[in-house]
Amino acid sequence: MKLGFNGATTMTSPFETDVRVAGEAGYDALEITATKLDKYLQTHTLADARKLIDAAKLKTHAVNSIEKINVAVERQKVLARTKEIGERCQALACPWIIAVPGPAPAGATWVQIRDETIAALRAMNDISAPLGVNLAFEFLGFGWCSVQTVAQAWEIVKTINLPTVGMVIDTCHFFAGGSTIDSISMIDAKKLAVFHINDVEKMPREKIEDANRLFPGDGVIPLKAIVAAVRATGYDGIASVEIFRPEYWARDPLAVAREAREKMARVLGL
């Protein structure tokens, strides 16, 4: 697998710092935090961003993210954001936009949630696909989320059955939501767009939050088993480190990027 750096790992640093430290730390690809790119483009152009990325000898892989995609009242906002980010991806040679579900509506059945999510992704795809950009659907393992497991996300992506719509596996969400190793074997590797690697503290799964994430190998997630299952599908794409930990944000960004890369490579056996 190639190694990717997700800007959430250095969330308080700007886009240009993410590009610099990812390049200096030896990553292959950058997963761009959408809000950081928003801020950068207030005073710079997409051409400027492209020059930075090229100078760092990085590929772009995904922009993360468009959120609450399956919340009906957010639909027009989601579609407008899809067009905006899709055009940015096109300019930056970035193949994927990560799409994230919202909270489960009160009383909604799984079939209702599934069908609403499918409709949302299809509508987004109608905008992104003509731009040459793909959608990567990411389930969230937190109890409030409408889509919490590998199996649920795969059911959605498999039903859509488009080459331009794939999915994300994030090890924190995998663990927090109670996904099974066996469920990974159902996935077509061509539909697995991004593999987020991180770890979490020892605590009840239902209490896990993003801030509880740790460097890969420093926590309790069975990462080697998950990695083996992902590899068994035939996936050989980007493994991207994504850690939302305020403690790390307070440290030197380059030191964080280097430690994250070293520990992710160790878990991957690289």
Task: Explain this structure.
This protein is 42% helix and 17% strand. The chain is α/β, with parallel strands linked by helices. It has a single domain, classed as TIM Barrel. The strands form two sheets. It has an eight-stranded parallel β-barrel with strand order 1-2-3-4-5-6-7-10, surrounded by six helices. The chain has a two-stranded antiparallel sheet with strand order 8-9. Strand 5 (134-138), helix 6 and strand 6 (165-170) form a beta-alpha-beta unit.
Which CATH top level class fits?
Answer: Alpha Beta
The main β sheet shows up as:
8 strands, parallel, barrel
Number of distinct helices: 11
State the end-to-end distance. Answer: 9 Å
Q: Strand pairing plus helix content: what structural class?
A: alpha/beta
Strand order of the largest sheet: 1-2-3-4-5-6-7-10
In CATH, the homologous superfamily goes by the name Divalent-metal-dependent TIM barrel enzymes
- Tell me, what's the shape? globular
Kindly state the number of beta strands.
10
Query: Taking Cα atoms only, what radius of gyration do you get, to the nearest Å?
Result: 17 Å
Features:
alpha/beta, 270 residues, globular, two-stranded antiparallel ribbon, 8-stranded parallel β-barrel, TIM Barrel
Write the layout of secondary structure elements.
Layout: E1 2-6, H1 15-24, E2 29-33, H2 34-40, H3 46-55, E3 59-66, H4 75-91, E4 96-99, H5 110-128, E5 134-138, H6 150-160, E6 165-170, H7 171-176, H8 181-184, E7 192-197, E8 199-200, E9 213-214, H9 223-232, E10 238-241, H10 246-249, H11 253-268
Parallel strand pairs: 1-2, 1-10, 2-3, 3-4, 4-5, 5-6, 6-7, 7-10
Antiparallel strand pairs: 8-9
Helix pairs in contact: 1-11, 4-5, 5-6
